[in-house]
Amino acid sequence: MEMRILGRLTAADALPLYSWVAIGGAVVTILGFLAIIGTITWLGKWRYVWTEWLTSLDHKRIGILYVMLALVMLLRGFVDAIMMRAQQAFALNSGGYLPPEHFDQIFSSHGTIMVFFMAMPFLTGLINIIVPQQIGARDVAFPFMNSVSLWLTAAGAGLVLISLVVGRFSTAGWTGYPPYSGAGYNPGVGVDYWIWAIQVSGIGSTLSGINFIVTILKRRAPGMKLMRMPLFCWTTLASSILMVFAFPALTVTTALLALDRIFDMHFFTNTDGGNLMNYINLFWIWGHPEVYILILPAFGIYSGVVSTFAAKRLFGYKSLVYATMAIALLSFTVWLHHFFTMGASAGVNAFFGVATMVIAVPTGVKVFDWLMTLFRGRITFHPSMLWTLGFIVTFTIGGMTGVLLALPPADYLMHNSTFLVAHFHNMLIPGALFGYLAGYMYWFPKAFGFTLDERWGKRAFWCWISGFYLAFMPLYMLGFMGMARRMERYDVAAWQPPLVIAALGAAVILAGIACLVIQLIASIRTRERRRDLTGDPWDGRTLEWLTASPPAPYNFAVLPQVRDIDALHEMKRRGAVYERPERYEDILLPRNTGAGVLIGGFAFVFGFSAVWHIWWAAAAALLALLAAAAARSFCDRTEFRLSASEIQQIEERRLRQLAGEEAL
Amino acid sequence: MSIAGKDTAVLPEADVYEQRALGFWLYLMSDAIIFALLFATYLVMVGNTAGGPGGGDLFSLSHTFGETLLLLTSSLTFGLASVALDSGNRRQLLGWLAVTFALGLGFVAMELREFHGLIALGAGPERSGFLSAFFTLVGTHGLHVSAGLVFILVMMAQVAVKGLSRPVASRLERLGLFWHFLDIVWIGIFSAVYLPGILQ
């Protein structure tokens, strides 16, 4: 075998010369990267970016970086989506504008990006910013590991992005089913990019899950019993438990596929004793809990939004908690419904079909709890409330089509059709993304100290929701008309009109995204008159609204005493809020470190080298990563002491601000 | 916001060690899922020999017995290291860690010899689904033991350089959890892989 210093990396294979559209994508990716680098350099802000953000272990800053990553990847994933809709709108009896090989990359990267690099960082970011504040903590349990998780996720996202410039991405769909994803049918680097991107980021997610569980179990403020935690903390706990126990399944699945591809093993091959069905089993043992990892935090956000903007205590708090934990448990019992047609016996299919329908029950409980909270509330139609209302209606429709698909005989007819595509978008767009956007608009002032423009927020909502219905209701119809998913071209004339409507829907969603961008820019420009000086712009009920906006590095100068589910609301009623404590004490906070960035960087080099079989570089990167981790473990004095006098200065300034506010 | 006093580094508060222990337990549970799935995969594929050799043809009881003896004894010596840690005896601690390291290294060496022998026989991981699953399950355990060996070296260095400070002691406790965990996994491998193979 010929040894090559750059593995299988050659200029001819690496450059995206196979399609003009791909070259355009590569150019946009490079220009975007250069624009970010150039802007920071032009502003002379590298030192600020490095010391205050990239190396920060403050959970709020790490959370903001996660959300920024998610928003960038949302744009990239959406470009994939609108390209697919455009292709299918044109591709009746013709090749459209995308060659098949390129179209296949686009649907693969769309799913991969939206699940792993949009939704996961978005929810992890919101959790990071908010959960410690909601439980009255000063940081997460493991601030350094938090930074490592962030940079591993960023490294994975970087691998997906660079696949557009150097080489190609997978054509095997976001699920990467063998044998098509095996070396025999897919010898290039595409599937390897997919494998290493999710392998690297998946480890980050497992670590995040561990971090959040320990934070919630061990770092609650005095009096914050488990059954007094805001719902978002509960759903975070459930979601984190799922991350810790489900992500190992993804790690195993992709690792075994990598062994098949690299070392010619036979886990999932057609020959020599491979069993490709085992892949599908293992993948969905992770994949179904993953759906709830994405959705449960959004449920928590909706619960907070509903209660704040209806100015009422959450209805059925306990039932919401039990429903959350029931969903978390049941999510491990339904994975087989993703492959009813694989040929399991009728009894097995029936069991998983029934289990799937059972999971709709706790979800239904939640919907009624939210409705009852709204009932006779004084509702404020803040954009976050609109996302919530849109979610309740749309998600319920998606739930009904889900119960339909849970019937194995019906699934035999509709599996792998656009009906399925419509169904899971109908769950995940309202069930996850709308929730994250509601959280983004709800908590933005907490993170940055000024509110977002509500008019543009409402416009974004109306574009998104009408665009959603336009884009996906036709896909339900097309599923019934027999259209399979992932078609690059077709010859059934009757499919074209609904596909054109779906493309129009994507265009309306594009308008929604434009509204989001305008909202952000307009709000930053007018930030001086949108300042949130109280830290509590919505008359909030939970502890994150007790801190300043943005919060001091320690969140709480004195840990709050919690007496109720709506802890802050109860304090306000008692008149015991914003009191000047008798004295301040020193607080220990994590010191910044660049080790997280370094570890993420090594992971990126490792992934890239593994994709291209540059084994010496992969080994070197792995060794460097281990060395960095070992060196970091020698560092015991990881915190710094913020003195009581400094805290007093910060707090006095805030109390004066609050007093001034009241005088107005 | 720049904060004065950011340069004076201090140890975290004492309750952090309990949190680290809980976090490590969670990591172990997550790792246990990885092994559980590899065990399940092995058991599904144990018959998929594709006309190649099966466990009965390849496994040697005496070799596996030797590996088991090394690894179980290393768990005992790690226990003795923990006792030395509790009594604050640094030299004894380093000694027992060194013995544990040597036994673990012996285990990895024996495993590599077994793997080498199988590959030389033409029974490498690319031969059949069964052998892919075997090499992956046992190899993953071996990789964990190797990582544990590195971990032991790092901790010996920390004990030597830093002494038995609270952070070092807490790391040693977690290393102990990891090491004993690998023992339990090995007992699973012995019972689910080698024993049924040999008794075939």
From TrEMBL, chain A:
Residue ranges the record marks as coiled coil: none
Mitochondrion is among the record's keywords: no
CDD domains referenced in this protein's UniProt entry, alphabetically: Ubiquinol_Oxidase_I (cd01662)
Residue ranges of every copy of the Cytochrome oxidase subunit I profile domain listed in the record: 44-563
Keywords from the named record: Cell membrane, Copper, Electron transport, Heme, Iron, Membrane, Metal-binding, Respiratory chain, Transmembrane, Transmembrane helix, Transport
Stretches that traverse the bilayer: 20-43, 64-86, 106-130, 150-173, 193-217, 229-259, 291-311, 320-340, 346-365, 386-407, 427-448, 460-479, 499-522, 588-608, 614-635
PANTHER family per the UniProt record, alphabetical: CYTOCHROME BO(3) UBIQUINOL OXIDASE SUBUNIT 1, CYTOCHROME C OXIDASE SUBUNIT 1
Source superkingdom: Bacteria
Membrane topology field: Multi-pass membrane protein
Compartments it resides in: Cell membrane
A Pfam family hit: COX1
Family: Belongs to the heme-copper respiratory oxidase family.
UniProt-recorded name of the protein: Cbb3-type cytochrome c oxidase subunit I
From TrEMBL, chain B:
Transmembrane segments: 24-45, 65-86, 93-110, 130-156, 177-199
Keyword presence, Cell membrane: yes
Cross-referenced SUPFAM superfamilies: Cytochrome c oxidase subunit III-like
Cellular location(s): Cell membrane
Main location per the UniProt record: membrane
Domain (Heme-copper oxidase subunit III family profile) ranges: 22-198
Protein's membrane topology: Multi-pass membrane protein
Keyword line: Cell membrane, Electron transport, Membrane, Oxidoreductase, Transmembrane, Transmembrane helix, Transport
Gene3D superfamilies reported for this sequence: Cytochrome c oxidase, subunit III, four-helix bundle
Quaternary structure annotation from Swiss-Prot or TrEMBL: Heterooctamer of two A chains, two B chains, two C chains and two D chains.
Record-stated family: Belongs to the cytochrome c oxidase subunit 3 family.
Protein task: Cytochrome bo(3) ubiquinol terminal oxidase is the component of the aerobic respiratory chain of E.coli that predominates when cells are grown at high aeration. Has proton pump activity across the membrane in addition to electron transfer, pumping 2 protons/electron.
Protein name: Cytochrome bo(3) ubiquinol oxidase subunit 3
Name of encoding gene: cyoC
